Amino acid sequence: MSNILMLCHDQYLDRRVVSQAQSLIHAGHGVTLLALSFHGDSQEEITPEGIKLFRIGLNHIVPENPTYTLYMERQWAFNRAFNAVANRYQAASRVGNRCFRLASRVNWFWYRCTLWVRYRNRFLGDPLPFRSAFVKFGAAHPADLIQVHDLPALEAGVELVERWKVPLVYDAHELYPEQRCFSDVQKRICREKETQLIARAQVVFAVNASIAEQMAERYGITQPVTLLNALDPPDGFDPQGHYDLIRKKLNLSPKRKILLFQGGFAPHRNLEKLVRAMLSVRAPDIDLVMLGFGDFGAKLRSRSERLGLLGRRVHFLAAVPQAELLQHSASADMGIIPYPHVDLNSYYCTPNKLFEFIQAELPILANESPELRRFVANEGFGVVAPLHTAGQIARAVDLAFSSPDMGNWKNCLRERRAAFAWAGGQEKIYLNALAPFLKAEQPLYSVGKGSTDA
What pLDDT is stored for residue 337 in this prediction? Predict the structure, then answer.
């Protein structure tokens, strides 16, 4: 049995993280996962999957960049100076407190200004502020192998494996330095850090073949192992079960056809254009259902109302638990992935919803991009088309719903969905990649011609 320490800078645990940890536990190993808390304090728990989860309190996330360090040095200097004045001149304590508060506000304003000068980003500061917290709390959990999920925890992982002389596994959930929310300065910082550290890992995973190729080329490493964001359907789920949850919740006629978007409501996902496209969809019996979460949903709902579409051709449903998601997906007639090419991650995306639609046997309409073409068009699961404008989306929706290939898409999904489940191949790839570095107590999977790493 090996003890594995996983480092993940997220608060909401990605399904990918939980699936990997669960597979290791089923193979006889112990897993401790360090992630971020939702609060200032740290907490420990055992998840339903048997993962020892330690959540690092947000109070322990201390950036180490010079801008923050100078800010704190000034703040402590103010604190010492005003305390000294107050201790010496008791009558001046009230004035001293007011001066301290004013100085602190000025210091904070100056800090925010210098952050912008350093990172050229009004909304984000240090893109990699987690090293010290993960090293501090990770040191309390010695392990036989460390797996890092995404770049923000990689530096801490390297420091810990050097301390313990154990293997390092790096799972890149995306091309982290290429995120649209980063400024050019922040992208450069992340690229330099990943270039410096990635070769220290004995195993590197990427979420699809295109991103694996990109990483191999830019970092001069052996091409990472492709490990898809696959999922296993919940117990009892049957895509042939004729679920009709969406129509029942919205009181829609059985004659209405449902185009489903599911997932997070956020800017830069083409969702405003998707809503507007429903003005131009010619088929009168198609409704768009937005099933998801996020503050941006209020803006989308307001836009739908202004366009006269809300409750008529555009409907909103709150996100549902993962255990109920596929039943809702299977209640639709087609799923849509409209993500625009705002950065390399969206251009090469294979989002969770892709594999959720596959497991629900739901035909897919997706924006034209290399990986979505690989999975949707080449596998016969649906159609890809340019979805960059509301007009393009509307035309693609009409063509997809009227396509004579709809039956073929459903047949291909039925025949191939098992190959794109976690247990259908991805778990084997994951465990076999780690096998040389684990103390296996039971045989691991053998990857043969029947498995897939598509």
Answer: 98
